[in-house]
Write a structure and sequence with these properties.
The structure is a single chain. With about 220 residues, the protein is mainly alpha-helical. It has a single domain, classed as Orthogonal Bundle (MetI-like fold). Helix 1 packs antiparallel against helix 2 and helix 7 packs antiparallel against helix 8. The N and C termini lie far apart (about 55 Å).
Length: about 220
């Protein structure tokens, strides 16, 4: 029974992995300036990123997904814009929502990591004549990456599991494919269990990958001492 639908399940898994991977990479790029701004000493620099982070961390991903997929289409200016070709597609709406959502969480991870960098290291960099930008680029951010990596790894796993909601807007990810199979076979327990196994396998793979990266960073740091 499962073997018959294996190609469709693999296609769904690839869609899930693609959504999660792109959202996390683009979300990380967006999160870097947000996280740096959130760690600023000046309230007016922190204000806008704080509002962004507060909204996306304070509301469910499913609600955000519906706002993008069903809400944006209500505006005529959006429907007549050059972006409507993408915004009318469930896949792109899911990708945009997941990217904005994870960017908020990664920004907070980065903020916490930056603020956890020992002050002595920053003072030493400034004593060596580094400017604030140089200290941020060569000392603070590399150190923050090592500090924040475990939390970022957890965010990857959480984003993988949260991506299961995208089937509600007809994206054919793992859950979307399983829903279609269940409508044909009525073998709900079997295929939900199969979906669970697929998510578990991906989770284990991501966990081992981040353990390898953490080990490599520790080895590299010890060699520089």
């Amino acid at each position: 029974m499962v073997a018959r639908f294996l190609p469709a399940l693999l296609d769904g898994m690839l869609v899930t992995l693609e959504l999660v991977a792109v959202a996390l990479v683009v979300g990380l790029i967006l999160a870097i300036p947000l996280g740096i701004a959130r760690a600023s000493r000046h309230w007016y620099v922190r204000a806008l990123p704080y509002t962004y982070v507060f909204f996306f961390r304070g509301t469910p991903l499913l609600l955000q997904l519906f706002l993008v997929y069903y809400g944006i289409s209500q505006f005529e200016a959006v429907r007549e814009s050059m972006f409507w070709h993408y915004l009318r597609e469930p896949y792109w709406c899911a990708l945009i929502t997941m990217t904005l959502h994870t960017a908020a969480y990664i920004a907070e991870i980065l903020r916490g990591a930056i603020q956890s960098v020992p002050g002595g290291e920053v003072e030493a960099a400034r004593a060596l004549g580094m400017s604030r930008r140089q200290a941020l680029q060569y000392i603070i951010l590399p150190r923050a990456v090592r500090i924040g990596l475990p939390a970022y790894g957890n965010e990857v796993i959480l984003m993988l599991k949260a991506s299961a909601v995208v089937y509600t807007i007809t994206v054919m990810d793992i859950m979307g494919v399983v829903k279609g199979i269940n409508s044909q076979t009525y073998q709900f327990e079997l295929f939900y269990l199969v979906a669970g196994v697929i998510y578990l396998v991906i989770t284990i793979a991501f966990t081992q990958l981040f353990k390898l990266v953490e080990r490599w960073l520790k080895i590299e740091a010890s060699q520089k001492r």
